[in-house]
Amino acid sequence: MAKALVLVPFALDEAGIDNRRAQLKAVKLGPDIAFDFRPVTAGPASFMSPHDWALMDMAIFEAGLSAEDDGYDAVCIDTMSDSGMLPLRSMLSIPVISPGKASMLFALTLGEKFGLLAQWQPAILRNKKALAEWGLAHRCAAIESYDSPPDFSNLMSGKEDEVFPKMQAAAERAIAAGADVICLGSTTMHQAAAFLADNLPVPVINPGPLTYKLVETVLALGLTHSRAAYPTPLAPKREMIQAMLAAAAKVEGGS
Amino acid sequence: MAKVLVLVPFPLNAKNLAQREIQQEAAHLGPDIEFHYRTVKAAPSNYVSHHDYVLADLGMLEAGLSAQDDGYDAVCIDTMSDSGVSALRSVLDIPVFGPGRASVLVALMLGERFSILTMWDSWRGLYKKTLLELEAGARCASIRAIGVAPDNRNLLAGKKDDLLPMLLSEANKAVSEDGAHVILLGSTTMHESHAYLAEHLPVPIINPGPLSYRMAETALALGVTHSRSSYPSPVVQKDDLFHTMLDAAAAAEGRDQ
Questions:
Q1: Which CATH architecture has domain A101-207?
Q2: CA-nearest residue of chain A to B108?
Q3: Chain B contact for A200, CB < 8 A?
Q4: By CB neighbour count within 10 A (0-12 exposed, 13-18 middle, 19+ buried), where does A4 fall?
Q5: How far apart are CA A98 and CA A82, in angstroms?
Q6: How many angstroms separate the CA atoms of A187 and A100, rounded?
Q7: Are A221 and B28 an interchain contact pair (Cβ–Cβ within 8 Å)?
């Protein structure tokens, strides 16, 4: 039985984790793989500022550092920001799969241009950063916001009737701008994926479930990220990194 | 049980076809999906010229036209040129995956630059269309060929002892001299070299045929298919015309259909 560790980008309680774990129901997976969900020890409250991005990189990095020693065969990162992906790839040999870049590349297996859905205006900058970082801006037809501040714990529970039509309208604007494929701009949007797939004329990429299939795929094919692209450090600082996040958790009032 | 149709780019005998079918084993897919292989009725002798590419496109399109009506859930194309993929996507709703584009995009999930390892320089044209369409030329560190004419029927049979070290040498140069982070095998006909190269290379190497099978399975599991806006349907679809042309081609080549 292969085991994959999914890193959740906020220090959520069990109810919050369950809302993330529900993504497993959106995709057909084989019987020989299991997914464990682990929240970060501490981190930012949101994703909207370079302040947040720096903290999130470190938080996810620390949360996943022990994955290989803990017996996991792969790591998934539960955020379209791909926070922590590059540092984790520099320290782990097991595959580290994150949905941001992977969603866009997978979208390009289905069409020529994709559109990104953003929850609200502050999320647009993060998406533009990702496009620039991955060199994919020329393949993005549009980033469209549906103007609904994100709830990183409860996600969209209880707000479906209000938010789903706004998401559909935003996706339709992206399609009118030339998007052949729609990428949900956050794994927190996963509850809307089926509705959007039913109501849009183009494929919709549900990023979290995509990463679970990509983990299955790379494990089956014996692939992992390239060490040439993500070199190991001269002097790894595991204990220091773990101490930093333990101290951060104390500041935040956790254990 | 999901059924996937794999389109093979040459009319092959049973023995040669079996050498293609064995690629399934490297995909490690479970019991809920099966792969059926169908050869084209007629084909060019190799894929080195635009003369060949247009014949290849037509042959693959005709071979796959009935896939959806025949009850298949997806189609895979057994050539890195992705011949016929766009045309088939314009007439089928079920997922159609070629290994060329998928290999480039998955390589970029694992690193920032890739090299293509191929048999001879005459195959460079196979990759040009994919690299241009994806605007991925700058991500391609190199295309390295070992300078050996390929055998698209017998593949590497009887020649592995000579060819494997040559392939490994060029792949290592792609990494050390060209800066490749990932290696793509330049043809599904090279699949018999994959295990050896994967064991000996310091970077990931993509086995294109099995990758395309996993892409098809992934699309089915996620409930997605190609975008109709990228592959618009024809105003008038001409299935009978294509069947007639390929039957005539097969007859001209001396094959009964």
A1: 3-Layer(aba) Sandwich (3.40)
A2: A105
A3: no
A4: buried
A5: 5
A6: 9
A7: yes
Give the Cα-Cα-Cα angle A19, A25, B107 (nearest 5 degrees): 100
Q: Which CATH number fits domain B2-98+210-252: 3.40.50.11540, 3.40.1190.20, 3.40.50.1860, 3.40.309.10?
A: 3.40.50.1860
Per-residue model confidence (pLDDT) at position A17: 92
Fold agreement between A2-98+209-252 and A101-207: yes
- Interchain contact, B202 vs A105, CB within 8 Å: no
Say which CATH topology domain B100-207 has.
Rossmann fold (3.40.50)
Tell me which residue in A112, A206, A221 faces B230 most closely, judged by beta carbons.
A112
Q: Give the contacts of B106 (CB within 8 A, at least 6 positions apart).
A: A105, A223, B206, B211, B215
Range(s) of chain B covered by CATH 3.40.50.1860: 2-98+210-252
ipTM for this prediction:
0.91
Q: Is the pTM of this model over 0.80?
A: yes
CATH architecture for segment(s) A2-98+209-252: 3-Layer(aba) Sandwich (3.40)
pLDDT (0 to 100) of residue A159: 83
Residue with tokens 């460079």: B124
Q: Averaged over B73-98, what is the pLDDT? A: 97
The shortest C-alpha distance from B34 to chain A (Å) reads 14
Q: Do A202 and B227 touch (CB under 8 A)?
A: yes
Q: Residues A216-250: pLDDT tens digits? A: 999 999 999 999 999 999 999 999 999 999 999 99
